[in-house]
Amino acid sequence: MIDIAKIYATEGRSPLDALSYREAMSRVGSAVNIVTTDGPGGRAGFAATAVCSVTDNPPTLLVCVNTKSSVYPAISANGALAVNALGSVHERLSRLFGGKTPSDERFSAARWRYGKRGVPILEDAVVSFECVVKHATTIGTHDVLFCEVEGVEIGEIESALLYCSRKYHTVPC
Ligand SMILES: Cc1cc2nc3c(=O)[nH]c(=O)nc-3n(C[C@H](O)[C@H](O)[C@H](O)COP(=O)(O)O)c2cc1C
Questions:
Q1: Which pLDDT score is estimated for 119?
Q2: What is the DSSP letter of 158?
């Protein structure tokens, strides 16, 4: 198996600077999610576009989280999380969870229920995935979390919230 973290650790500096990479990535439209957790490390949640499916067997998502963010200690300590895909009605919620708003204020802006592992699940998400973190590896500034999906909840919102060129957009889905 290729050990990506090891390759990154042993190779020299990238020929592309971070700013150019970020500028290029800003043009790639992505679905917006709120990743939430609760447990011994406390409750936390953040807006995330770095989420994608890995495989359906076992059902696995990956989530990238900045190791310097305020939410990181809780995310890494709890070992369980929910990925809540946002809809067109959730732009304000994304701004709250994607900024420096205190955690209690973030959560009081929406309604939540608690999943089997006690993680907050957004009541009106487009779809929510309840997950356990099976594997994590560090690449530079971020941890890549491989999350096995234990349950899904499909909501009724029919338009997704996307983020592209640093602006919000909605698309029917
Ligand atoms: C649209 C959007 C997408 C984001 N995607 C990610 C992501 O995939 N991973 C990540 O670590 N942070 C991401 N962020 C930043 C976090 O949401 C943000 O760092 C965090 O909520 C605030 O930092 P704090 O946790 O240190 O308070 C994103 C922010 C926005 C607005």
A1: 98
A2: -
Going by alpha carbons, the residue nearest to atom 4 of ligand 1 is: 48
Secondary structure of 39-92 in HEC code, one letter for each residue: CCCCCEEEEECCEEEEEECCEEEEEEEECCCCCHHHHHHHCEEEEEECEHHHHH
- Successive 10-residue mean pLDDT values, the chain, 173 residues: 65 82 97 98 98 98 98 97 98 97 98 97 98 97 98 94 98 92
Entry pTM: 0.94
Q: Where does ligand 1 bind, in terms of residues with CB under 6 Å?
A: 32, 46-50, 64-66, 69-71, 94, 97-98, 100, 163
* pLDDT on residue 89: 97
Under 8 Å between Cβ of 105 and 93: no
The atom number, within ligand 1, closest to the CA of 163 reads: 1
Q: Calculate how far, in angstroms, residue 77's C-alpha sits from the geometric centre of ligand 1.
A: 18
Q: Integer distance in angstroms from the first to the last C-alpha of the chain?
A: 36
Look at residue 173 in the predicted model and tell me its pLDDT: 87
**Residue 14: its pLDDT value, please?**
76
For ligand 1, pick from 25, 51, 64, 66 the residue to mutate: most ligand atoms within 8 Å of CB: 66
CB atoms within 10 A of CB 95: 14
